[in-house]
Amino acid sequence: MTTIDEMVLIPRPRSTVESGEGAPVADLRVRDHPTPSLPPQGFRITSSAEGVDIDHRDAAGLRYARSLLDQVVDQCPGGRLPGFSIEDSPDIAVRGYVLDISRDRVPTRATLERLVELCALARINQLQLYVEHTFAHPEHRAVWELASPMTPAHLSWLDLHCSHHGIELVVNQNTFGHMERWLGHERYRHRAESPEGWDPVPGMHLPPSVLAPTEDNAAFALELVRHQLDCVRSPQVHIGCDEPFGLGHGVSADDVAARGLGPVYVEHLRRLADPLLADGHRVQVWADVLARHPALAAELPTGIVPVAWCYEAPTADGGLRPLPDTVVDLLARMGVDQAGFSGFGPVVAGLADHDVDFWVAPGTSAWNSLVGRVDNARANLVDAAETARAHGCGGLLVTDWGDNGHHQPPSVSFGPLVYGGAVAWGLDANRDLDLGAVLDRHVFADPSGCISAALASLGTEWGRTGQEAVNASPLAAALFPDQVHLVLGRPDPALVADVVARIEGAIGELARAAPTCSDGEVVVRELTLAARMARHGAWDLLGDAGPPAAVRTEDMAELAEGHLVSWMDRSRPGGLSDSLARLDPSLTRRATAST
Protein backbone atom coordinates (compact mmCIF):
# COMPACT_ATOMS: atom_id res chain seq x y z
CA MET A 1 0.00 0.00 0.00
CA THR A 2 1.33 3.46 -0.93
CA THR A 3 1.72 5.68 2.12
CA ILE A 4 0.86 9.38 2.19
CA ASP A 5 4.55 10.26 2.54
CA GLU A 6 5.29 8.36 -0.68
CA MET A 7 2.62 10.17 -2.66
CA VAL A 8 3.18 13.21 -4.89
CA LEU A 9 0.88 15.84 -3.36
CA ILE A 10 0.59 19.55 -4.11
CA PRO A 11 0.67 21.38 -1.77
CA ARG A 12 2.08 18.91 0.72
CA PRO A 13 0.10 19.07 3.99
CA ARG A 14 1.56 20.45 7.19
CA SER A 15 0.40 17.53 9.37
CA THR A 16 -0.08 13.86 8.48
CA VAL A 17 -0.59 10.90 10.80
CA GLU A 18 -0.90 7.45 9.20
CA SER A 19 -2.84 4.61 10.84
CA GLY A 20 -3.09 1.34 8.96
CA GLU A 21 -5.69 0.63 6.29
CA GLY A 22 -8.48 2.87 5.13
CA ALA A 23 -11.60 2.21 3.09
CA PRO A 24 -11.76 0.67 -0.39
CA VAL A 25 -11.69 3.24 -3.19
CA ALA A 26 -14.70 1.65 -4.89
CA ASP A 27 -17.91 3.23 -3.58
CA LEU A 28 -15.89 5.41 -1.22
CA ARG A 29 -18.05 7.11 1.39
CA VAL A 30 -17.04 10.74 1.99
CA ARG A 31 -18.79 12.73 4.73
CA ASP A 32 -18.12 16.43 5.25
CA HIS A 33 -18.66 18.36 8.46
CA PRO A 34 -18.55 22.16 8.91
CA THR A 35 -16.13 22.78 11.78
CA PRO A 36 -15.92 26.42 12.97
CA SER A 37 -12.98 25.67 15.27
CA LEU A 38 -10.62 25.13 12.33
CA PRO A 39 -8.62 28.08 10.91
CA PRO A 40 -10.01 29.93 7.86
CA GLN A 41 -9.57 27.79 4.72
CA GLY A 42 -8.49 24.93 6.99
CA PHE A 43 -9.54 21.29 6.84
CA ARG A 44 -9.01 17.85 8.35
CA ILE A 45 -9.28 14.61 6.36
CA THR A 46 -9.66 11.36 8.30
CA SER A 47 -9.46 8.05 6.43
CA SER A 48 -10.60 4.87 8.18
CA ALA A 49 -12.08 1.52 7.26
CA GLU A 50 -15.55 3.11 7.42
CA GLY A 51 -14.78 5.79 4.84
CA VAL A 52 -13.47 9.37 4.78
CA ASP A 53 -14.55 12.29 6.94
CA ILE A 54 -13.75 15.88 5.97
CA ASP A 55 -13.93 18.56 8.63
CA HIS A 56 -13.74 22.04 7.13
CA ARG A 57 -13.96 25.61 8.33
CA ASP A 58 -15.53 27.05 5.16
CA ALA A 59 -16.19 26.45 1.47
CA ALA A 60 -12.54 27.00 0.60
CA GLY A 61 -11.42 24.41 3.14
CA LEU A 62 -13.88 21.87 1.74
CA ARG A 63 -12.69 22.58 -1.82
CA TYR A 64 -9.02 22.11 -0.87
CA ALA A 65 -9.76 18.95 1.11
CA ARG A 66 -11.64 17.34 -1.76
CA SER A 67 -8.86 18.27 -4.21
CA LEU A 68 -6.23 16.71 -1.96
CA LEU A 69 -8.37 13.62 -1.45
CA ASP A 70 -8.66 13.25 -5.22
CA GLN A 71 -4.85 13.28 -5.45
CA VAL A 72 -4.63 10.58 -2.78
CA VAL A 73 -7.28 8.38 -4.41
CA ASP A 74 -5.53 8.70 -7.76
CA GLN A 75 -2.35 7.28 -6.21
CA CYS A 76 -3.87 4.20 -4.62
CA PRO A 77 -3.38 1.51 -7.28
CA GLY A 78 -4.30 -1.25 -4.82
CA GLY A 79 -7.85 0.03 -4.61
CA ARG A 80 -7.74 0.82 -0.88
CA LEU A 81 -6.83 4.05 0.85
CA PRO A 82 -4.31 4.08 3.67
CA GLY A 83 -5.63 5.06 7.05
CA PHE A 84 -4.58 8.62 7.89
CA SER A 85 -5.45 11.95 9.40
CA ILE A 86 -4.34 15.05 7.48
CA GLU A 87 -4.79 18.54 8.88
CA ASP A 88 -3.92 21.66 6.93
CA SER A 89 -4.46 25.42 6.75
CA PRO A 90 -2.64 28.29 5.01
CA ASP A 91 0.28 30.36 6.23
CA ILE A 92 -0.91 33.30 4.10
CA ALA A 93 -4.58 34.09 3.53
CA VAL A 94 -4.33 35.52 -0.02
CA ARG A 95 -2.11 33.68 -2.49
CA GLY A 96 -2.24 35.38 -5.85
CA TYR A 97 -0.92 35.14 -9.38
CA VAL A 98 -0.33 38.28 -11.46
CA LEU A 99 0.02 37.70 -15.21
CA ASP A 100 1.39 40.45 -17.44
CA ILE A 101 -0.86 40.80 -20.50
CA SER A 102 0.54 44.17 -21.58
CA ARG A 103 4.03 43.30 -22.86
CA ASP A 104 2.71 41.95 -26.16
CA ARG A 105 1.14 38.59 -25.07
CA VAL A 106 -2.60 38.54 -24.44
CA PRO A 107 -3.51 34.90 -23.70
CA THR A 108 -6.22 32.98 -25.50
CA ARG A 109 -9.21 31.66 -23.60
CA ALA A 110 -7.71 28.16 -23.60
CA THR A 111 -4.48 29.51 -22.11
CA LEU A 112 -6.39 31.33 -19.39
CA GLU A 113 -8.33 28.14 -18.61
CA ARG A 114 -5.05 26.25 -18.26
CA LEU A 115 -3.60 28.88 -15.95
CA VAL A 116 -6.73 28.92 -13.78
CA GLU A 117 -6.48 25.13 -13.56
CA LEU A 118 -2.89 25.41 -12.31
CA CYS A 119 -3.81 28.13 -9.83
CA ALA A 120 -6.54 25.89 -8.42
CA LEU A 121 -4.09 22.98 -8.18
CA ALA A 122 -1.66 25.09 -6.13
CA ARG A 123 -4.43 26.66 -3.98
CA ILE A 124 -3.84 30.11 -5.42
CA ASN A 125 -7.01 32.01 -4.63
CA GLN A 126 -6.53 35.32 -6.45
CA LEU A 127 -5.78 36.07 -10.12
CA GLN A 128 -4.84 39.44 -11.60
CA LEU A 129 -4.24 40.34 -15.24
CA TYR A 130 -1.78 43.24 -15.34
CA VAL A 131 -3.13 45.81 -17.81
CA GLU A 132 -1.57 48.93 -19.24
CA HIS A 133 -3.36 49.23 -22.60
CA THR A 134 -4.81 45.77 -23.34
CA PHE A 135 -8.40 46.27 -22.21
CA ALA A 136 -10.96 47.48 -24.73
CA HIS A 137 -11.89 50.78 -23.09
CA PRO A 138 -14.84 52.08 -25.11
CA GLU A 139 -13.53 55.58 -25.86
CA HIS A 140 -9.86 54.74 -26.47
CA ARG A 141 -9.82 52.41 -29.45
CA ALA A 142 -6.62 53.84 -30.96
CA VAL A 143 -4.63 52.64 -27.95
CA TRP A 144 -5.75 49.00 -27.94
CA GLU A 145 -7.03 48.20 -31.43
CA LEU A 146 -3.82 46.38 -32.49
CA ALA A 147 -3.38 44.58 -29.16
CA SER A 148 -6.16 41.94 -29.34
CA PRO A 149 -7.32 43.21 -25.96
CA MET A 150 -9.45 41.69 -23.26
CA THR A 151 -13.02 42.88 -23.78
CA PRO A 152 -15.68 43.39 -21.11
CA ALA A 153 -17.23 40.08 -22.19
CA HIS A 154 -13.87 38.29 -21.89
CA LEU A 155 -13.32 39.68 -18.40
CA SER A 156 -16.82 38.77 -17.23
CA TRP A 157 -16.35 35.23 -18.55
CA LEU A 158 -13.02 34.92 -16.74
CA ASP A 159 -14.55 36.25 -13.52
CA LEU A 160 -17.19 33.51 -13.63
CA HIS A 161 -14.66 30.83 -14.59
CA CYS A 162 -12.38 31.83 -11.70
CA SER A 163 -15.26 31.76 -9.23
CA HIS A 164 -16.04 28.16 -10.21
CA HIS A 165 -12.48 27.29 -9.07
CA GLY A 166 -12.59 29.30 -5.83
CA ILE A 167 -10.41 32.06 -7.27
CA GLU A 168 -11.06 35.79 -6.98
CA LEU A 169 -10.42 37.80 -10.16
CA VAL A 170 -9.02 41.21 -9.22
CA VAL A 171 -8.69 44.13 -11.63
CA ASN A 172 -5.10 45.30 -12.11
CA GLN A 173 -4.86 48.52 -14.16
CA ASN A 174 -1.76 50.69 -13.98
CA THR A 175 -2.71 54.33 -13.43
CA PHE A 176 0.48 56.38 -12.98
CA GLY A 177 3.71 54.91 -14.34
CA HIS A 178 4.14 52.50 -17.27
CA MET A 179 1.71 54.46 -19.44
CA GLU A 180 3.99 54.67 -22.48
CA ARG A 181 1.51 52.81 -24.69
CA TRP A 182 -0.95 55.63 -24.05
CA LEU A 183 1.47 58.53 -24.13
CA GLY A 184 2.91 57.39 -27.46
CA HIS A 185 -0.33 58.62 -29.07
CA GLU A 186 -0.60 62.33 -29.80
CA ARG A 187 -4.10 62.45 -28.31
CA TYR A 188 -2.72 61.57 -24.84
CA ARG A 189 0.75 63.13 -24.97
CA HIS A 190 -0.35 66.24 -23.07
CA ARG A 191 -1.05 64.05 -20.03
CA ALA A 192 2.62 63.12 -19.66
CA GLU A 193 4.91 64.41 -16.95
CA SER A 194 7.44 65.07 -19.74
CA PRO A 195 5.66 65.00 -23.13
CA GLU A 196 8.96 64.91 -25.02
CA GLY A 197 10.52 62.29 -22.76
CA TRP A 198 13.49 62.78 -20.45
CA ASP A 199 17.18 61.99 -20.09
CA PRO A 200 18.17 60.20 -16.85
CA VAL A 201 21.84 60.56 -17.88
CA PRO A 202 23.46 62.30 -20.84
CA GLY A 203 23.09 60.22 -23.98
CA MET A 204 20.17 58.15 -22.66
CA HIS A 205 16.71 59.32 -23.72
CA LEU A 206 13.51 57.68 -22.47
CA PRO A 207 10.06 58.27 -23.97
CA PRO A 208 7.26 59.58 -21.77
CA SER A 209 5.84 56.86 -19.54
CA VAL A 210 4.41 58.54 -16.43
CA LEU A 211 1.27 60.63 -16.15
CA ALA A 212 1.67 64.05 -14.60
CA PRO A 213 0.27 64.08 -11.04
CA THR A 214 -2.84 66.17 -11.69
CA GLU A 215 -6.52 66.00 -10.76
CA ASP A 216 -7.47 65.62 -14.42
CA ASN A 217 -5.09 62.68 -14.91
CA ALA A 218 -6.43 61.01 -11.77
CA ALA A 219 -9.97 61.26 -13.13
CA PHE A 220 -8.79 59.90 -16.49
CA ALA A 221 -7.05 56.90 -14.88
CA LEU A 222 -9.97 56.16 -12.56
CA GLU A 223 -12.23 55.93 -15.59
CA LEU A 224 -9.97 53.18 -16.94
CA VAL A 225 -10.11 51.31 -13.65
CA ARG A 226 -13.88 51.54 -13.38
CA HIS A 227 -14.39 50.18 -16.89
CA GLN A 228 -12.85 46.92 -15.69
CA LEU A 229 -14.46 46.97 -12.25
CA ASP A 230 -17.83 46.88 -13.96
CA CYS A 231 -16.93 43.41 -15.29
CA VAL A 232 -15.94 41.64 -12.05
CA ARG A 233 -17.37 41.03 -8.60
CA SER A 234 -14.31 41.50 -6.41
CA PRO A 235 -14.17 44.63 -4.25
CA GLN A 236 -10.38 44.54 -4.45
CA VAL A 237 -8.46 46.43 -7.12
CA HIS A 238 -4.78 46.96 -7.96
CA ILE A 239 -3.91 50.41 -9.34
CA GLY A 240 -0.17 49.84 -9.90
CA CYS A 241 1.59 53.22 -9.54
CA ASP A 242 5.04 51.61 -9.72
CA GLU A 243 8.19 52.97 -11.31
CA PRO A 244 7.02 56.53 -12.12
CA PHE A 245 10.20 57.12 -14.12
CA GLY A 246 10.82 60.83 -14.69
CA LEU A 247 8.45 62.09 -12.00
CA GLY A 248 9.76 65.50 -10.93
CA HIS A 249 11.50 66.14 -14.26
CA GLY A 250 8.62 67.84 -16.06
CA VAL A 251 5.22 69.16 -15.04
CA SER A 252 5.81 68.41 -11.35
CA ALA A 253 9.44 69.62 -11.26
CA ASP A 254 8.80 72.73 -9.17
CA ASP A 255 6.45 70.90 -6.79
CA VAL A 256 8.93 68.05 -6.25
CA ALA A 257 11.75 70.54 -5.73
CA ALA A 258 9.70 72.34 -3.09
CA ARG A 259 8.10 69.42 -1.23
CA GLY A 260 10.06 66.32 -2.24
CA LEU A 261 9.11 63.41 -4.47
CA GLY A 262 7.51 61.35 -1.69
CA PRO A 263 4.80 63.86 -0.73
CA VAL A 264 3.99 64.62 -4.39
CA TYR A 265 3.71 60.90 -5.16
CA VAL A 266 1.52 60.13 -2.13
CA GLU A 267 -0.74 63.08 -2.82
CA HIS A 268 -1.44 61.72 -6.31
CA LEU A 269 -1.81 58.19 -5.00
CA ARG A 270 -4.55 59.49 -2.70
CA ARG A 271 -6.27 61.17 -5.68
CA LEU A 272 -6.49 57.73 -7.23
CA ALA A 273 -7.19 55.61 -4.16
CA ASP A 274 -9.54 57.73 -2.06
CA PRO A 275 -12.49 57.63 -4.50
CA LEU A 276 -12.12 53.86 -4.77
CA LEU A 277 -11.99 53.51 -0.98
CA ALA A 278 -15.14 55.62 -0.75
CA ASP A 279 -16.85 53.19 -3.13
CA GLY A 280 -15.99 50.27 -0.83
CA HIS A 281 -12.91 48.93 -2.61
CA ARG A 282 -9.70 47.69 -1.05
CA VAL A 283 -6.83 49.16 -3.07
CA GLN A 284 -3.53 47.43 -3.77
CA VAL A 285 -0.57 49.53 -4.92
CA TRP A 286 3.02 48.59 -5.71
CA ALA A 287 5.27 49.66 -2.83
CA ASP A 288 8.54 50.54 -4.59
CA VAL A 289 8.11 54.29 -3.98
CA LEU A 290 6.37 53.89 -0.62
CA ALA A 291 9.19 51.65 0.63
CA ARG A 292 11.56 54.60 0.18
CA HIS A 293 9.16 56.84 2.10
CA PRO A 294 7.85 54.51 4.83
CA ALA A 295 6.75 57.30 7.17
CA LEU A 296 4.38 58.52 4.47
CA ALA A 297 3.22 54.96 3.81
CA ALA A 298 2.34 54.62 7.49
CA GLU A 299 -0.04 57.57 7.18
CA LEU A 300 -2.09 56.06 4.35
CA PRO A 301 -5.70 55.28 5.21
CA THR A 302 -6.86 51.77 6.01
CA GLY A 303 -7.74 49.93 2.83
CA ILE A 304 -4.65 50.87 0.83
CA VAL A 305 -2.38 47.82 0.68
CA PRO A 306 1.26 48.40 -0.35
CA VAL A 307 2.66 45.38 -2.21
CA ALA A 308 6.46 45.14 -1.91
CA TRP A 309 8.09 43.44 -4.88
CA CYS A 310 11.48 41.83 -5.30
CA TYR A 311 12.51 39.31 -7.94
CA GLU A 312 16.02 38.30 -6.94
CA ALA A 313 17.15 35.68 -4.45
CA PRO A 314 18.56 37.16 -1.24
CA THR A 315 22.29 37.56 -0.89
CA ALA A 316 24.13 35.12 1.34
CA ASP A 317 24.70 37.74 4.05
CA GLY A 318 21.32 39.44 3.70
CA GLY A 319 22.95 42.68 2.57
CA LEU A 320 22.88 44.60 -0.69
CA ARG A 321 24.09 42.87 -3.85
CA PRO A 322 27.26 44.66 -5.01
CA LEU A 323 26.76 46.55 -8.27
CA PRO A 324 29.08 48.89 -10.18
CA ASP A 325 28.85 52.53 -9.08
CA THR A 326 27.73 53.56 -12.56
CA VAL A 327 24.82 51.16 -12.39
CA VAL A 328 23.84 52.28 -8.89
CA ASP A 329 23.97 55.91 -10.01
CA LEU A 330 21.77 55.26 -13.05
CA LEU A 331 19.26 53.31 -10.97
CA ALA A 332 19.13 56.16 -8.45
CA ARG A 333 18.52 58.74 -11.19
CA MET A 334 15.62 56.64 -12.43
CA GLY A 335 14.21 56.28 -8.93
CA VAL A 336 15.07 52.58 -8.65
CA ASP A 337 16.33 51.37 -5.28
CA GLN A 338 19.37 49.06 -5.28
CA ALA A 339 17.69 47.18 -2.43
CA GLY A 340 15.28 45.63 -4.91
CA PHE A 341 18.04 43.36 -6.25
CA SER A 342 19.02 41.87 -2.91
CA GLY A 343 16.10 39.91 -1.48
CA PHE A 344 13.06 41.04 0.48
CA GLY A 345 14.88 41.96 3.70
CA PRO A 346 16.26 45.32 2.51
CA VAL A 347 13.09 46.06 0.52
CA VAL A 348 10.61 45.79 3.41
CA ALA A 349 12.83 47.01 6.25
CA GLY A 350 11.42 50.55 6.30
CA LEU A 351 7.81 49.42 5.96
CA ALA A 352 8.24 46.94 8.79
CA ASP A 353 9.94 49.52 11.01
CA HIS A 354 6.95 51.83 10.55
CA ASP A 355 4.38 49.08 11.19
CA VAL A 356 2.93 49.31 7.68
CA ASP A 357 0.65 46.42 6.74
CA PHE A 358 2.07 45.23 3.43
CA TRP A 359 1.98 42.26 1.07
CA VAL A 360 4.87 40.73 -0.85
CA ALA A 361 5.30 39.94 -4.55
CA PRO A 362 8.04 37.57 -5.76
CA GLY A 363 8.16 36.29 -9.34
CA THR A 364 8.46 33.30 -11.61
CA SER A 365 11.85 34.59 -12.91
CA ALA A 366 10.73 33.60 -16.41
CA TRP A 367 10.91 36.98 -18.13
CA ASN A 368 14.13 38.06 -19.87
CA SER A 369 15.26 34.44 -19.61
CA LEU A 370 13.77 32.48 -22.55
CA VAL A 371 13.85 29.21 -20.54
CA GLY A 372 13.56 30.37 -16.93
CA ARG A 373 15.80 30.94 -13.94
CA VAL A 374 14.26 28.24 -11.80
CA ASP A 375 16.92 28.25 -9.07
CA ASN A 376 16.49 31.99 -8.58
CA ALA A 377 12.70 31.58 -8.69
CA ARG A 378 12.66 28.99 -5.92
CA ALA A 379 14.92 31.05 -3.67
CA ASN A 380 12.92 34.23 -4.37
CA LEU A 381 9.59 32.52 -3.67
CA VAL A 382 10.84 31.01 -0.41
CA ASP A 383 12.28 34.39 0.63
CA ALA A 384 8.90 36.00 -0.01
CA ALA A 385 7.04 33.33 1.97
CA GLU A 386 9.48 33.65 4.87
CA THR A 387 9.11 37.44 4.82
CA ALA A 388 5.33 37.25 4.67
CA ARG A 389 5.16 34.82 7.56
CA ALA A 390 7.63 36.79 9.67
CA HIS A 391 5.69 40.03 9.25
CA GLY A 392 2.17 38.61 9.27
CA CYS A 393 1.45 39.67 5.70
CA GLY A 394 -2.05 39.05 4.46
CA GLY A 395 -1.04 38.30 0.88
CA LEU A 396 1.65 36.99 -1.46
CA LEU A 397 1.36 37.64 -5.22
CA VAL A 398 3.44 35.52 -7.61
CA THR A 399 4.17 37.79 -10.57
CA ASP A 400 4.83 36.67 -14.14
CA TRP A 401 6.10 39.51 -16.34
CA GLY A 402 6.69 39.76 -20.09
CA ASP A 403 9.42 42.38 -20.34
CA ASN A 404 10.97 43.05 -23.75
CA GLY A 405 8.63 41.05 -25.95
CA HIS A 406 7.44 38.17 -23.77
CA HIS A 407 9.49 35.59 -25.67
CA GLN A 408 9.32 32.90 -22.97
CA PRO A 409 6.35 30.56 -23.46
CA PRO A 410 3.76 30.13 -20.69
CA SER A 411 4.94 26.64 -19.73
CA VAL A 412 8.30 28.01 -18.53
CA SER A 413 6.32 29.58 -15.68
CA PHE A 414 4.24 26.52 -14.77
CA GLY A 415 6.78 25.13 -12.29
CA PRO A 416 7.43 28.40 -10.39
CA LEU A 417 3.69 29.10 -10.40
CA VAL A 418 2.70 25.89 -8.62
CA TYR A 419 5.77 26.00 -6.35
CA GLY A 420 4.95 29.58 -5.39
CA GLY A 421 1.40 28.62 -4.50
CA ALA A 422 2.65 25.68 -2.43
CA VAL A 423 5.16 27.65 -0.31
CA ALA A 424 2.65 30.47 0.15
CA TRP A 425 0.15 27.92 1.46
CA GLY A 426 2.57 26.06 3.74
CA LEU A 427 6.26 26.95 3.70
CA ASP A 428 7.61 24.32 6.07
CA ALA A 429 5.96 21.40 4.29
CA ASN A 430 6.73 22.62 0.76
CA ARG A 431 10.11 24.34 0.90
CA ASP A 432 11.80 21.15 -0.34
CA LEU A 433 8.94 20.08 -2.61
CA ASP A 434 9.98 17.66 -5.36
CA LEU A 435 8.90 20.00 -8.11
CA GLY A 436 9.93 17.63 -10.88
CA ALA A 437 7.64 14.90 -9.55
CA VAL A 438 4.78 17.39 -9.21
CA LEU A 439 5.24 18.54 -12.81
CA ASP A 440 5.41 14.95 -14.07
CA ARG A 441 2.21 13.84 -12.34
CA HIS A 442 -0.02 16.86 -11.92
CA VAL A 443 1.00 19.43 -14.54
CA PHE A 444 2.28 17.65 -17.64
CA ALA A 445 1.09 14.08 -16.94
CA ASP A 446 4.41 12.96 -18.39
CA PRO A 447 5.44 9.49 -17.16
CA SER A 448 8.76 9.83 -18.99
CA GLY A 449 9.82 12.70 -16.70
CA CYS A 450 11.53 14.31 -19.70
CA ILE A 451 9.76 17.68 -19.59
CA SER A 452 10.55 18.29 -15.93
CA ALA A 453 14.14 17.15 -16.47
CA ALA A 454 14.54 19.53 -19.40
CA LEU A 455 13.06 22.45 -17.44
CA ALA A 456 15.30 21.76 -14.46
CA SER A 457 18.38 21.78 -16.67
CA LEU A 458 17.40 24.73 -18.86
CA GLY A 459 16.34 26.77 -15.84
CA THR A 460 19.86 26.87 -14.40
CA GLU A 461 21.89 27.57 -17.55
CA TRP A 462 21.56 31.34 -17.04
CA GLY A 463 24.02 31.13 -14.14
CA ARG A 464 26.66 29.02 -15.90
CA THR A 465 28.20 31.37 -18.48
CA GLY A 466 30.76 32.92 -16.15
CA GLN A 467 28.73 36.15 -15.95
CA GLU A 468 26.51 37.68 -13.29
CA ALA A 469 23.01 38.74 -14.18
CA VAL A 470 20.15 40.47 -12.38
CA ASN A 471 16.54 40.21 -13.57
CA ALA A 472 17.69 38.48 -16.75
CA SER A 473 19.65 35.63 -18.29
CA PRO A 474 22.90 36.29 -20.18
CA LEU A 475 21.49 34.00 -22.88
CA ALA A 476 18.51 36.30 -23.48
CA ALA A 477 20.70 39.38 -23.26
CA ALA A 478 22.97 37.97 -25.97
CA LEU A 479 20.06 37.03 -28.23
CA PHE A 480 18.63 40.56 -27.94
CA PRO A 481 21.70 42.84 -27.81
CA ASP A 482 19.67 46.01 -28.38
CA GLN A 483 17.78 45.51 -25.12
CA VAL A 484 19.08 46.87 -21.83
CA HIS A 485 19.89 44.10 -19.35
CA LEU A 486 21.93 44.07 -16.15
CA VAL A 487 24.56 41.48 -17.07
CA LEU A 488 28.05 41.89 -15.62
CA GLY A 489 31.37 40.39 -16.68
CA ARG A 490 32.53 38.54 -19.75
CA PRO A 491 31.45 35.03 -20.74
CA ASP A 492 33.86 32.13 -20.29
CA PRO A 493 34.02 30.32 -23.66
CA ALA A 494 34.60 26.90 -22.10
CA LEU A 495 31.65 27.32 -19.75
CA VAL A 496 29.43 28.58 -22.56
CA ALA A 497 30.37 25.59 -24.72
CA ASP A 498 29.19 23.36 -21.87
CA VAL A 499 25.96 25.38 -21.71
CA VAL A 500 25.37 24.70 -25.41
CA ALA A 501 25.91 20.98 -24.86
CA ARG A 502 23.47 20.86 -21.95
CA ILE A 503 20.85 22.81 -23.88
CA GLU A 504 21.13 20.35 -26.74
CA GLY A 505 20.74 17.55 -24.21
CA ALA A 506 17.55 19.19 -22.95
CA ILE A 507 16.26 19.46 -26.52
CA GLY A 508 16.84 15.73 -26.81
CA GLU A 509 14.93 15.16 -23.55
CA LEU A 510 11.96 17.09 -24.91
CA ALA A 511 11.95 14.94 -28.04
CA ARG A 512 11.47 11.88 -25.80
CA ALA A 513 8.70 13.39 -23.67
CA ALA A 514 5.30 11.71 -23.57
CA PRO A 515 2.89 14.17 -21.94
CA THR A 516 -0.80 13.32 -21.82
CA CYS A 517 -1.99 16.70 -20.53
CA SER A 518 -4.42 18.62 -22.76
CA ASP A 519 -1.69 20.92 -24.09
CA GLY A 520 1.11 18.35 -24.18
CA GLU A 521 2.04 18.81 -27.83
CA VAL A 522 2.07 22.59 -27.42
CA VAL A 523 4.28 22.34 -24.33
CA VAL A 524 6.88 20.22 -26.11
CA ARG A 525 6.83 22.45 -29.18
CA GLU A 526 7.13 25.74 -27.29
CA LEU A 527 9.80 24.54 -24.87
CA THR A 528 11.87 23.14 -27.72
CA LEU A 529 11.69 26.51 -29.45
CA ALA A 530 12.62 28.34 -26.25
CA ALA A 531 15.59 26.02 -25.76
CA ARG A 532 16.74 26.69 -29.30
CA MET A 533 16.49 30.44 -28.65
CA ALA A 534 18.66 29.99 -25.56
CA ARG A 535 21.14 27.97 -27.58
CA HIS A 536 21.33 30.74 -30.18
CA GLY A 537 22.02 33.22 -27.36
CA ALA A 538 24.85 30.97 -26.18
CA TRP A 539 26.22 30.84 -29.74
CA ASP A 540 26.24 34.65 -29.74
CA LEU A 541 28.22 34.61 -26.49
CA LEU A 542 30.77 32.33 -28.15
CA GLY A 543 31.25 34.77 -31.02
CA ASP A 544 33.75 33.49 -33.59
CA ALA A 545 34.10 30.25 -31.62
CA GLY A 546 30.47 29.43 -32.34
CA PRO A 547 28.82 28.17 -35.52
CA PRO A 548 29.46 29.98 -38.82
CA ALA A 549 27.40 33.03 -39.73
CA ALA A 550 25.41 31.11 -42.34
CA VAL A 551 24.32 28.54 -39.76
CA ARG A 552 23.26 31.27 -37.34
CA THR A 553 21.33 33.15 -40.03
CA GLU A 554 19.39 30.04 -40.99
CA ASP A 555 18.75 29.20 -37.33
CA MET A 556 17.46 32.71 -36.61
CA ALA A 557 15.01 32.48 -39.51
CA GLU A 558 13.73 29.17 -38.14
CA LEU A 559 13.42 30.65 -34.64
CA ALA A 560 11.39 33.57 -35.93
CA GLU A 561 9.11 31.24 -37.88
CA GLY A 562 8.74 29.01 -34.84
CA HIS A 563 7.99 31.97 -32.60
CA LEU A 564 5.16 33.00 -34.90
CA VAL A 565 3.61 29.51 -34.75
CA SER A 566 4.20 29.06 -31.01
CA TRP A 567 2.70 32.46 -30.25
CA MET A 568 -0.54 31.57 -31.99
CA ASP A 569 -0.74 28.33 -29.98
CA ARG A 570 -1.14 30.29 -26.74
CA SER A 571 -1.73 33.98 -27.41
CA ARG A 572 -3.90 36.34 -29.38
CA PRO A 573 -2.37 37.88 -32.50
CA GLY A 574 -2.04 41.42 -31.17
CA GLY A 575 1.50 42.09 -29.99
CA LEU A 576 3.04 39.38 -32.16
CA SER A 577 4.56 41.84 -34.61
CA ASP A 578 6.27 43.76 -31.79
CA SER A 579 7.64 40.58 -30.24
CA LEU A 580 8.69 39.04 -33.54
CA ALA A 581 10.46 42.19 -34.71
CA ARG A 582 12.97 41.80 -31.89
CA LEU A 583 14.00 38.45 -33.37
CA ASP A 584 13.82 39.17 -37.10
CA PRO A 585 12.37 42.47 -38.34
CA SER A 586 12.06 41.07 -41.85
CA LEU A 587 9.24 38.78 -40.73
CA THR A 588 7.18 41.51 -39.07
CA ARG A 589 5.19 42.26 -42.23
CA ARG A 590 4.36 38.57 -42.58
CA ALA A 591 3.21 38.35 -38.97
CA THR A 592 1.00 41.39 -39.44
CA ALA A 593 -0.50 39.90 -42.61
CA SER A 594 -1.20 36.59 -40.84
CA THR A 595 -3.21 38.31 -38.12
UniProtKB/TrEMBL annotation:
Residues 21-88 form the Beta-hexosaminidase bacterial type N-terminal domain. It comes from Iamia majanohamensis. One of its GO terms (biological process) is carbohydrate metabolic process. One of its GO terms (molecular function) is hexosaminidase activity. Residues 575-595 are annotated as: Disordered. Keywords: Glycosidase, Hydrolase. Pfam families: Glyco_hydro_20b. The keyword Phosphoprotein does not apply. InterPro entries: GH (IPR017853), Hex-like_dom2 (IPR029018), HEX_bac_N (IPR015882), HEXDC-like (IPR038901). This is Beta-hexosaminidase bacterial type N-terminal domain-containing protein.
